[in-house]
Amino acid sequence: MTKKRRVILVTDGDSVAQRAVQRAVTNIGGRCISRSGGNPTPMSGIEIVELIKSAKHDPVVVMVDDKGSSHTGAGELALYEIVNHPDIDVLGVIAVASNTPGVAGTKVDFSITCDGEIINNSVDKEGLPKKGKVLYGDTVDIIDKCNVPLVIGIGDIGKMEGKDDCEIGAPIITKAMEEILSRRGYFNGNKKETRRKSKNSR
Q1: From start to end of 34-166, where are the E strands?
Q2: What is the rounded CA–CA span in Å between residue 125 and residue 100?
Q3: CB count, 10 Å around CB of 195?
Q4: Could you report the per-residue pLDDT of 154-179, keeping only the tens digit for each?
Q5: Spatial separation of the C-alpha atoms in residues 84 and 44, rounded to whole Å
Q6: Contact (CB, 8 A) for 97 and 121
Q7: What is the pLDDT of residue 33?
Q8: Three-class DSSP category at 91
Q9: Which of 7, 19, 53, 197 has the fewest CB atoms within 10 Å around its CB?
Q10: What residue ranges do the domains of the chain occupy?
Q11: Is the pLDDT of residue 35 over 50?
């Protein structure tokens, strides 16, 4: 029986987001499927799954992006294929806010603001708190049609007026990944014991 690969999905893939995601993945000791980056997503979900399987170890982080489309684009289709693949265990999805009009949005479990605060509601593109739990972005509508265990809202990765810049360690996207690992009970050798206290806090 094939061992399922454990994956974190991120709904952003432009060049700035790619650099921040790659920095965050290094911070958590994971593996990043760099070829999944692009605006829009340059390959199918099935093709990305094959790259996931070839990654040296878990967790594996994948980027998907619809390039601002309000319709179901390449990024959402890839996300759906990955989530529903029998060899993949999705630990969580980091849903990225945008100003795309005409989208339905997705309900988040919680969000991380541009200041690194965990809130029960959603955020906007700048990472500022919003009322309600629905986050609006160009690559998030399909999440509600998927069976994923955890959805974290976040502002524009690598940006948020410099607060998530990869030059300062991409702290916001890093925290989002850490929260997924912590709350899903997944810990690598670099995790501190104190992080374990929050694994059942959802």
Answers
A1: 60-63, 88-96, 106-107, 110-112, 118-119, 134-135, 151-154
A2: 10
A3: 14
A4: 999 999 999 999 999 999 999 999 99
A5: 13
A6: no
A7: 97
A8: strand
A9: 197
A10: 5-187
A11: yes
